[in-house]
Amino acid sequence: MTPAEWVLLGGAATFAGTLNAVAGGGSFLTLPALAMVGVPPVSANATGTAALLPGYMAGAWAQRKDLSGPMAPSLLRLSVLSVLGGAAGATLLLSTSNSDFGRIVPWLLLAATLLFACGPRLLRKGAVASQSPSEWITDICIAAVAIYGGYFNDGLGILLLAVLAALGHTDMSRMNGIKNFVSVILTLIAVVIYAASGAIAWTHALWMAIGATAGGYFGGVTARRLKPALVRGFVVLTGLAMTAAFFLETS
C-alpha cells in the first residue's frame, strides 16, 4: 500500500473507534476505506469486522458487572445463540460472491443507516410494547440478530438494543452489557471463520485495530463533552453519504 492508503485506513479506523465509543456507527467508515484501497467487498467486510473486535471486547469487559445475577436468557443460552447465529452469518457471507456482495452492500448500508437514525424511537417503542415473550420467540430474535451480525456488522449494536427492549428488558445498563457480550461472542466466532477461510487481510486489520483502539480510548475520554444528538446526526449523514457512493459505484 502507499503511504496515503496507510493514512486513510489508520484515520478511518481511529475515527471509527471514537464513534463507536460515543454513539456507534464506526463501521460506516471502515468498510468504505477498505474498499477504497482495493480490498474486495467480502474481504473488506471481514477485515473491518476483525479490526473492530478489540473494541467490542474492551466494551464487554468494562461492563462485565452488569451481567451479574440471574437473567433471561441466561449467559449460557446467549452464548449458544450467538455462536450459532454468528457462525451462520459468517458462512453465509463467505458463500456470497464479491460481485453479489458488492451489489448488496449499498442496501445493507442504507438499512443500517436508517436503523441507526431510528434507534432511539425503536428503543422507546420496544420498551412500551414489551411483554414477556416465550423462550422460543426470544431465541429466534437473538439468533436472527446474531446471523445479521455475522454477515454484516453495521448497525448491530442498535439492533440488539431494540430487540432487547422489545423482549422486555428495561435496565439500560444491563441491556448494554448484554449487547456487548453478544457482540463479542458472535463477532469472535465470525472472525474465526473468516480467518480460517483466508478472507481477512491481516496487515490491514492489525493496523486498523491499533487505530480503532486509540480512537476508542479517545472517544471514551471525550464522550461526556459531546452532544449525543450532534454525533448521531454526523453518523447518519456519513452513512447516507457512504450509501450514495456505493450506489453510484454499482450503477
Describe what this molecule looks like in 3D.
- This protein starts with a helix and ends with a helix.
- The protein is mainly α.
- The protein has one domain (3-250).
- Helix content is 80%, strand content 0%.
- It contains eleven helices and no strands.
- Helix 1 runs antiparallel to helix 2 and helix 3 runs antiparallel to helix 9 (172-197).
- It is found in: Cell membrane.
Could you name the key traits of this structure?
251 residues, mainly alpha, 11 helices, 0% strand
In short:
Helix content is 80%, strand content 0%.
- pLDDT < 50 runs, ≥5 residues: none
How much helicity do the residues have?
over 70%
Number of strands: 0
**Helix-strand pattern, N to C?**
HHHHHHHHHHH
Helix/strand/pairing class, anyone? mainly alpha
Percentage of residues in strands = under 5%
**Tally of helical runs:** 11
Domain tally = 1
Span of the ends, CA to CA: 27 Å
Note the main sheet: none
Gyration radius, in Å: 17 Å
Membrane topology: Multi-pass membrane protein
Family: Belongs to the 4-toluene sulfonate uptake permease (TSUP) (TC 2.A.102) family.
Protein name: Probable membrane transporter protein
Transmembrane segments: 6-30, 74-94, 101-122, 142-168, 180-200, 206-223, 230-248
